[in-house]
Amino acid sequence: MKLNLSFFNFAVVLTTLLLVKTTVAWHFNIPRLHTLQPAGPTANATVHFTVTDVHDNHTTTHCSTSFAEPTANSTNYPTGASPIACQDPHFGWYFSSFSGLGNFSINVIHTYIDPVVGPSPQTLYGTGFLINEALVPQLNCYVLPTGAYGCAFAEPQYPIVIPVTSVVAKKARKRFGGARMA
Predict the structure, then answer these.
(1) Dihedrals φ, ψ of 12, to 5°?
(2) Contact status, residue 59 vs residue 50, Cβ threshold 8 Å
(3) Which H or E run contains 69?
C-alpha cells in the first residue's frame, strides 16, 4: 500500500504525534509549598509555592497570593476565570478546586517561545490533582497556638507533580493578574 501525504498533511500528523508523545512526559514540579490562615476574622489566607517547568530548561519561578479565605458557597480564591501571575509573568496559576488551605488542586499555565516550533508562543496547561495530607503524605498541616492554620511541603527530591494536560501553539496573548504574557 502506497501512502500519499502532502507536505501539509505530513506536518500536521507529525506535529500532532510529537505533541501527544511529549505532552505525556511534560510536567511541572512544585518542590515547595506553604499556606497560612492567620487567626482572626479579617486575616487573609496566603499561598506561596515554587514551580518548575521541567520541559523549558527547568525554568523556575515563585508564585503567591493572598485572599480572604472563602466561606461556604463563595469563590473568592483564584479560579480559572482570574489566574494569578507568578514572579515570572509567563507563569500563571489558579485553584481548580478549593475546600481550604489543606485541601485544594492547583493548575499551572506557562507561556514561552520554543525555537524548534517557531516564533508563536506555546502555552502549557497543567492540571493538578487534589493536594491534601491523605494524598500527599509529605504535606504537613498544623495549628499554631495563636489559632493560625497552615500547611507546608518542602521536598525538592520528591516534588508534587502537575502533569501537562494540553499544549497550545498559537499566536495568542493572555493576561494574568494584570501582567501581560508574551
Answers:
(1) -65, -45
(2) no
(3) none
Q: What is the pLDDT of residue 155?
A: 87
What is the number of H-type helices and E-type strands within the chain? 1, 13
CA distances from 43 to 37, 40, 66, 89 (A): 7, 5, 10, 27
Rounded Cα gap, residues 176 and 182, in angstroms: 11
For 52-98, how does the pLDDT look when each residue is reduced to its tens digit (9 = 90+)? 998 877 889 999 999 887 666 667 788 887 889 999 999 999 998 88
Q: In 90-129, which positions are buried (b, 16+ CB within 10 angstroms) versus exposed (e)?
A: bbbbbbeebebbbbbbbbbbbbbeeeeeeeebbbbbbebe
Burial of 78: CB neighbours in 10 Å, binned 0-12, 13-18, 19+: buried
Q: Report the amino acid identity of residue 107.
A: N
Q: Please, what sign has the CA dihedral across residues 65, 68, 70, 75?
A: negative
For residue 171, the tally of other CB atoms under 10 A from its CB is 8
First to last CA, the chain: 46
Q: Which helix (H) or strand (E) holds 17?
A: helix 7-25
Residue with the three cell numbers 506561596? 48
How far is the C-alpha of 75 from the C-alpha of 96, rounded, in Å?
11
Distance CA 169, CA 123 (A): 6
102: cell is 489543606
